[in-house]
Design a protein that fits this description.
Length: 368
């Protein structure tokens, strides 16, 4: 089904999908095959499942429609999607990256790609005086950031980047296209870890790159096939199924997060609360030391102590020890990420139960 001017609620259910023509199946089938019979040599759109798969194509088209893009290219993980975007750069390229990013992104940039002559500079993209220097090839943004939940003016940064010939990539995993569509704000590329909110059920790992640039999309598809980091059809099917309720889930994630934020801000034992005003992610600093924060995250029963985010179940973690452990302590300190920062992914449970669970955790943290 073509996107047209449909609302995102409708696109989530229908975009990229039509009843299967042979049987009329309403749900996109899982095309669990590695190869396809060809009527003539090389004259068939389906040749090998690393290159194309109908289930993956449906997912790619759906995700592109949700972001208002023409092209979606799916990968086996969010990091595989990020890695592929970096592969489109020329040797010696210069990347300007936000200083508060997912630990895996920082690790990939500084520990791997920097070895091959790419130059990475990190800066606070939320500052009003943030500039994009001449010679920059790519600007990499998270907005909101992980885990401090800072937001950037994507439209203004895109204008500055384009003025010096730089491409703008936005990791939109936290906001989702329900709350933000970076391509409409001037970004050139959007990436997601589809593992998170887009799938929403903590049972699939995946990633996607979305763009309106035809030439870039062709290059991304070439890399997708050449490097082979593709999602399997079962994973694509599960993500498609999760997407059908994205708009509904995000409403509940947001309302629960807002209830948690209002409650946390009333407590004297909370030093600071980070929340961008939308979405389901919250981070805060508990007054006290790392030991107290550790007792806190170990005491919750509804909030599960685990990495990742965006599932229907609520999760809790200590980024400095878990998701951002690959970022050196001095770098974390410089950007204001203390060891005791607690990150919450608010699920879709009853808000009152979540608050009661956090209250018990506060009691446990202070009991020591």
């Amino acid at each position: 089904m073509k996107p047209g001017k449909l609302h995102i609620d409708t696109l989530a259910v229908h975009a990229g999908q039509s009843p299967e023509p042979v049987t009329g199946a309403v749900m996109t089938p899982i095309f669990q095959t590695s190869t396809f019979a060809q009527p003539h040599p090389g004259a068939w759109p389906w040749e090998y499942a690393r290159t194309h798969n109908p289930t993956r194509t449906a997912l790619q088209d759906n995700l592109a429609a949700l972001e208002g893009g023409r092209h979606g290219v799916c990968f086996s993980s969010g990091l595989a999607a990020i890695d592929t975007v970096i592969r489109t750069l020329a040797p010696g390229a210069r990347v300007l990256c936000g200083d508060d990013v997912y630990g895996g992104t920082y690790r990939l940039f500084t520990k791997e790609w920097a070895r091959y002559g790419l130059h990475f500079t990190f800066a606070d993209t939320t500052r009003a005086d943030f500039t994009v220097p001449a010679g920059t090839d790519l600007v990499w943004l998270e907005s909101p950031t992980n885990p401090l939940l800072k937001t950037s003016d994507i439209a203004a940064i895109a204008a500055r980047a384009h003025a010096v010939g730089a491409r703008v990539v936005v990791d939109n995993t936290f906001a989702t296209p329900v709350f933000q569509r970076p391509l409409e704000l001037g970004a050139d590329v959007v990436v997601h870890s589809t593992t998170k909110y887009l799938n929403g059920h903590s049972d699939v790992v995946g990633g996607v790159v979305i763009t309106n640039d035809d030439a870039l999309a062709e290059r991304l598809c070439w890399l997708q096939n050449a490097c082979g980091a593709v999602p399997g059809p079962q994973d694509c099917f599960l993500t498609l199924r999760g997407l059908k309720t994205l708009h509904l889930r995000m409403e509940r994630h947001q309302s629960n997060a807002q209830a948690v934020v209002a409650w946390l801000r009333q407590r004297d034992d909370v030093a600071v609360v980070h929340y961008p005003g939308f979405g389901g992610m919250v981070s805060f600093v508990l007054k006290g030391d790392l030991t107290a924060a550790t007792r806190f995250v170990e005491a919750t029963r509804i909030f599960t102590l685990a990495e990742s985010l965006g599932g229907v179940e609520s999760l809790i973690e200590l980024p400095a020890i878990m998701t951002h452990a690959s970022i050196p302590p001095e770098v974390r300190a410089a950007i204001g990420l203390p060891d005791g920062l607690i990150r919450l992914s608010c699920g879709v449970e009853h808000a009152g139960d979540l608050l009661a669970d956090l209250a018990d955790a506060f009691a446990a943290a202070h009991a020591g």
